[in-house]
Write a structure and sequence with these properties.
The longest helix has 13 residues, at 38-50. This protein has one domain (38-142). The protein has 143 residues and is of the alpha+beta class. A hairpin with a 2-residue loop joins strand 2 and strand 3. It has helices at residues 2-8, 38-50, 61-66; strands at residues 78-81, 84-92, 95-103, 110-114, 120-124, 132-142. It is built from 3 helices and 6 strands, in the order H-H-H-E-E-E-E-E-E. Helix content is 18%, strand content 30%. The protein has a 6-stranded antiparallel beta sheet, with helices on one face. It starts with a helix and ends with a strand.
Length: 143
């Protein structure tokens, strides 16, 4: 609302650049980005190039792409299952860590995930209420 009011009253001769929503973020550092870590972006870009990044997960692709060039794709790239992707996964002590991207079907479920090289395991996805969900540095229990 504040942005619309400011934009409709902007003197277009003095200020040629239109206002953006970011101009009205009162509580955040304007230099701080909310983009995921570069290793997650590099993994996502590699999955897209391989044709393995599912269409339902594209909601987070723009943010992942932001820092992708700053890292090399990790190994393994991801663990992929029905309605779940875990980018840049690492497995230790009964947990799988990485960036979780999931759709509502996977909420509070145990799902089978497989890497592009064929290794698979079952993980417990945390409960969430959104239709799609992304969580950086997630720790999932291996079942």
């Amino acid at each position: 609302m504040m942005m619309q009011t400011a934009e409709s009253n902007r003197d277009r001769k003095k200020n040629k650049r239109p206002f953006l929503i970011e101009d009205f973020c009162l509580y955040g550092d304007p230099g701080e980005t909310q983009a995921p870590a570069a290793r997650y972006g590099a993994a996502a870009i590699a999955l897209v190039e391989m044709g393995l990044f599912p269409a339902w997960a594209l909601f987070v692709y723009k943010d992942l792409k932001t820092n992708a060039a700053k890292a090399v794709p990790p190994e393994p790239l991801a663990l992929i299952g029905d309605s779940v992707i875990i980018l840049a996964p690492s497995v230790s002590e009964g947990q799988c860590n990485g960036m979780l991207i999931a759709s509502m079907d996977a909420s509070d479920q145990v799902v089978q995930v497989t890497s592009p090289c064929g290794k698979s395991l079952s993980v417990r996805v945390p409960k969430f209420n959104e239709s799609v969900y992304a969580l950086e540095d997630a720790s999932l229990l291996i079942k």
